[in-house]
Amino acid sequence: MQQKAEKRARKFRKQPRLLEHAQKDRNDWEGIAENSRQQWVKAIRERDYKQDQMSQLARERERVQERLVQVTRERDTALRVSENRRRAWEMHRIQSLERENYLQDQIEAGLVEIYRLNNLLQPIPRPVPVYPEVGPQVIVADDDGMEVDGPAAAAPPLHEDMEDKELEPVSNEDGEAIFDADSNDEPGV
Question: Which residue has the higher pLDDT, 117 or 150?
Fold first, then answer.
């Protein structure tokens, strides 16, 4: 019995050491678990922070896309307005040229009419025919019946009978004949 008691005593002496080891291991495992839990909480916080950043970036991207759509619409509107202005300017230029041509034609037609009316009011007289055998002519105006005498002296006849006249030689300053048309002499001989 004594041996049994000693054996039990040894067993119970070992138990506090085992208990200490178990307590120490438990404390170590709790430290590791706490450390892991803190890392896990830290990872969750980082994940939440990054999700917030992602949602902010997504909202910002949507705002930028909306602004891009708005700027694109404004650009398209500006291009349409510019194209419309260019077309209007071309149409105005074409219409101006057509109007200018029309007015130029009207001016030319008006000038022709003015010249026609002016010729009716103040006709350009034709030259008076000259008849040498008749003498002075009388011109009678149609509008008032007033008589006007023709030219005072008759113009020389256009076709006068040319008589054969003897040509006189042309001479130079010394009086020598330069050329004699009636002779066979050479000039200067």
Answer: 117
Number of C-alpha atoms within 13 angstroms, CB side, residue 136?
8
pTM over 0.70: no
Query: Using a CB cutoff of 8 Å and minimum separation of 24, what contacts does 45-50 make?
Result: none
Read off the amino acid at residue 105: D
3-state secondary structure of 138: strand
Token digits of residue 132 = 């040498």
Residue 175 lies in a domain: no
Tell me how many degrees the CA angle 162-165-168 measures, rounded to the nearest 5: 140
**69-84: per-residue pLDDT in tens?**
999 999 999 999 999 9
Nearest to 135 by CA among 148, 149, 115: 149
- CA 132 to chain CA centroid, nearest Å: 73
Total structural domains in the chain? Answer: 1
Q: Please tell me the predicted confidence (pLDDT) of residue 137.
A: 57
**Residue 184 is assigned to a structural domain of this protein:** no
Other CB atoms within a 10 A radius of the CB of residue 179 amount to 13
Residue 159 falls inside a structural domain = no
Q: How far apart are CA 82 and CA 76, in angstroms?
A: 10
Domain limits for position 39: 9-149
| 122, part of any domain | yes
